[in-house]
Amino acid sequence: MAVIGAGTRGRFQIAAVNEVVKISNAKIYDIVPRVAADYVREMTTQHGLEIKQGGSREQAVEGADIVITATPSTGPIVLNEWIKEGAHINAIGADAPANKTSIPQ
Hints:
By secondary structure, the protein is an alpha/beta fold. Helices cover 32% and strands 21% of the residues. The protein has 3 helices and 5 strands, in the order βαβαβαββ.
């Protein structure tokens, strides 16, 4: 599993997916590396999962069966060529009326 966005939505998503499919490991990427590092510590402790911090969005989604984007970005976050064939994608967060941000490429 991969999660792009280590905020509140990303924390709830990993908990919810783990409840349904019992994931064994995950990778996280956030535009703020410290926030991603905090996520790794917190979610590893709470869920007993192997969670690693991806150095880039591409590294985070590489090989993931489930990809979750939980950011307010209205621009592209992951590219099709990074996604494993048959992967499930949950793309949440950009539909809020106040969201007008974009992740730098």
